[in-house]
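== Protein entry: sequence and backbone fold ==
=== Local backbone shapes as whole numbers ===
==== Amino acids and backbone structure tokens ====
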Amino acid sequence: MFTEQKIGKLLAGASALALAGVGFLGATAANAAETGNIDGSKLGSINIHKSAAAPGEAGDGTELPADPQPILEGVTFTIQPVLHDGVELDLSTAEGWELAEALGTTPTLPLTGDYSLGTSQAVTTDVNGVATLSGLNLGLYLVTETDSGNNLIKDKSAPFYVSVPNPQDNGQWNYDVHVYPKNTLNEINIVKTVDDAAKLMGDTVTWTLETEVPASSLPYKSFKLTDVLPTGLEFIAWESVSIGGTPLVAGDYTISDDNTEITLTAAGLLKLDGAGATTVTAVLKTKVTAIPEDGKITNDATVTINGTSDNDPATTNLGTLKLIKMDEDQKILPGAEFELYAEAPVDGQPTGEPLATGVSNENGEIIWQLHLGIEGDATENYWVLETKAPAGYVLPANPWSGELIVNGGEVTTNEVTNHKPVGPNLPMTGAQGTMLFSIAGVGLMGVAAGGALLQRRRARQGN
């Protein structure tokens, strides 16, 4: 039987529910029992005000002067009438209130016994964070939060009952009920890192985008990674995308035509929902094609989940080492060969393998454009070994350079000289001997000619 005591229990439970930010019933038992003035011909409405504000005092079903902030647009609720024996509860009657009281103040789902739910109607909060369903018969309704929209909701509101009408402390009945369910929003965090494996400009530079994704009681609506490469950085490939360390397959995500965005498909979002609190990791391969003036290549990435974004940049630093090869008279020397090392030699011997080799060009230059480090590390030390001198020159006694310090965005220049050997002056033995023999030969020829003349003269005188 419908009694004042039973209504009192119902209303006491409703007040406890309202403390969580939702309205059910709000009048005292005495007022509710004594009014008896429900207008059964009226229709009512449920107005849902959605925000991420901290829960405050319990509402009484009336509209607050201003909605709590921040409001949440795009959140969807379903509203269903509660049925008994397939018929909506009629809260214009004492019997309807008794049937409502029997359900308690907190829904236990699914409903059992003779209770069931009628056809659901969906409403979505507008730009003001309000969703309204009007033209409702007087009865008890179950309200369920079903879709987060573009909101990073951590925990959806628990399903709750709303009575139309709603009893008021002043003995009146509120046919247009306002409820204020609250949500706690999740936070996301993307961390972008770059490896320091690249040593020379043009080497592959690998960027890793890791997004911490919290568990959500509502399905995720969207997930997008955006990475627009800066000038001087060239795209090679998205190497992999994974959730919780498990690689995704092609149908789980799409890549934009310009390779700047990765978007999870419905299949990928389903895997994200099933992973709970997890990490989404994407690995991007690039290469540097030009060094900016400050030597910094900064690549920023953004993750957007359900309309909420976070971003994080990462930086790789570059600089230039230039050798100029010449002799002691400042003559430019092409053809000298060198090796570049990142560690100092030990007892004149190289440590590790050379980072690069080079041959001086027609200008006597070797230019190496170098990755120096990542983030705040923008300085690196190098050592150069001359392995072959230009033709006609010899290696120095110590073919190693000293320590060469290269800073980000700067050109470190080092001049390397070679000595050209000059042999001693040799005596001119060949030329002097020939001259002496020539003079002696001419003398002998003169003596022979004189003898012949003398002999002829004697012969004439004898005749």
User: Anything to note?
Assistant: Residues 429-462 form the longest helix (34 residues).
